[in-house]
Amino acid sequence: MKERIETIVVTGGCGFIGSNFIHMCLRERDYEIINLDALTYAGNPENLKECESDSRYTFVKGRIENADLVNSLLKDADAVVHFAAESHVDRSIEEQQPFVVTNVLGTQVLLSSALHSPRLKRFVHVSTDEVYGSLRPGEPAFKEGDHLRPNSPYSASKASSDLLCRAFFKTYGLPVVITRCSNNYGPYQFPEKLIPLMFINALSERPLPVYGDGTNVRDWIYVEDHCTGVLAALEKGAPGEIYNFGGECELSNLEVVKTILELLDKPEDLITFVKDRPGHDFRYAMDITKAKNELQWQPEWDFKKGIAATIEWYQANREWWERILSGDYRNYYQRRYGTL
Ligand code: NAD
Ligand code: DAU
User: Fold this and answer.
1) Which tens digit of pLDDT belongs to each residue from 320-340?
2) Is 154 a catalytic residue?
3) Which residues contact 260 (CB under 8 A, 6 or more apart)?
4) Residue 91, Cα to own-chain centre: how many angstroms?
5) pLDDT tens string 242-283
6) What is the atom index within ligand 2 of the atom nearest the CA of 337?
7) Is 210 within 8 Å of 172 (Cβ atoms)?
8) Which of 162, 167, 157 is nearest to 179 (CA)?
């Protein structure tokens, strides 16, 4: 991109991927970052406490559906990097509306506001492989041109937001870039997601609840690799384009869980097969040829190195997740998985 980017509004920067992205930007670039985050159950300002003293970083607590607030923040922005979302599939199965409100309505408010943002050069919409639906064994990995076939309320809301982004590019020429990534893991991931949940349960020798028979496959990517991809999409992505990111690392849930147990030296009989997730997508896999060729991006972390670094982080940051477990999340955890 020729025009210079100075100020970026990041949405959802207090969540898992957003906070890793902000750390990376402040470490490796000179952008001014305005982080707009509602601090839902998944947003944690502690993730960015080291950034608070950085004069290039500003935190604004608020919701992306608040048009007045969004207008005031976007008026001087050069770019938006949009992470904010309700992100957990299981929660979307229990209650759909928050997913539509944040992921669909919130994205529309941001896009509409961006139309009136005179300096805006890029709007990066961070989406997911789940919009493509589910693969059977042996089927080719998802490509950017594939049809959208979302199966959960979460993925349907993300697919809807992707379509709004497409419409704003086609109708108004808004310089939107969509990224779609596979399953992330790494520091600051909320412990409702597979890897941190299994780590925490294994550490205290509680049962590890594996849905169905554990053969479902995900394509795992270390969060830092996703963040370098989003940065590349911001700086090199062409308006109107979609870029897939993935770790080229397909593993069954059982393989992931057994690796965690092995690294923690815990017995496999902690694995407990529980009722399957309704509509559970069988397999995700991403074809990342386009991002390799057009963004000169590729994942750098293999699973062995990434999972070891992740486990090391959760071991070194016990207070971070213990505080989450003793807060409101405790009720959700106990309802799903039993007494803590
Ligand atoms: P997360 O749940 O950890 O964080 C979401 C953040 O958004 C939180 O800080 C939350 O407070 C904030 N937020 C939620 N609703 C908001 C609202 N209405 N207004 C302002 N802020 C709000 O999510 P994550 O795992 O970091 O995912 C970030 C993005 O990446 C999401 O858009 C998700 O769909 C996408 N994604 C995630 C993965 C993954 O494996 N986690 C993979 C591909 C894409
Ligand atoms: O693929 C990208 C998506 O990855 C993102 O868009 C989502 O925001 C993110 O939450 C993640 O979705 P998944 O549903 O794949 O992630 P989750 O960690 O919830 O589950 C991963 C796999 O593990 C899935 O097959 C379900 C299974 N699982 C999950 C939990 C929480 C279990 O077997 N037991 C569990 O307790």
Assistant:
1) 999 999 999 999 999 998 887
2) yes
3) 195, 198, 199, 202, 307, 311
4) 15
5) 999 999 999 999 999 999 999 999 999 999 999 999 999 999
6) 36
7) no
8) 162
Closest-CA residue, ligand 2 atom 30, reads: 194
Q: For the chain, give every domain's residue range.
A: 7-184+223-245
- Is 7 within 8 Å of 32 (Cβ atoms)? yes
Ligand 1 within 6 A of 18 CB?
Answer: yes
**7 within 8 A of 34, measured Cβ to Cβ:** yes
pLDDT beyond 90 at 103: yes
Supply the DSSP string of 147-205, one letter for each residue: PP---SHHHHHHHHHHHHHHHHHHHH---EEEEEE-EEESTT--TTSHHHHHHHHHHTT
Q: Which of 129, 162, 192, 225 is catalytic?
A: 129
Taking CA atoms only, the protein residue closest to ligand 1 atom 17 is 63
In the numeric block, the tokens 């998944």 are attached to 42
Among residues 154, 185, 243, 314, the one annotated as catalytic is: 154
Determine whether the shortest distance from the Cβ of 261 to ligand 1 is under 6 A.
no
Tell me how far the alpha carbon of residue 35 lies from the centroid of ligand 2, in angstroms. 26
Architecture of domain 7-184+223-245: 3-Layer(aba) Sandwich (3.40)
Instruction: Name, in order, each residue with C-beta under 8 angstroms of 99's C-beta and a sequence gap of 6 or more.
Output: 86, 91, 92, 153, 154, 157
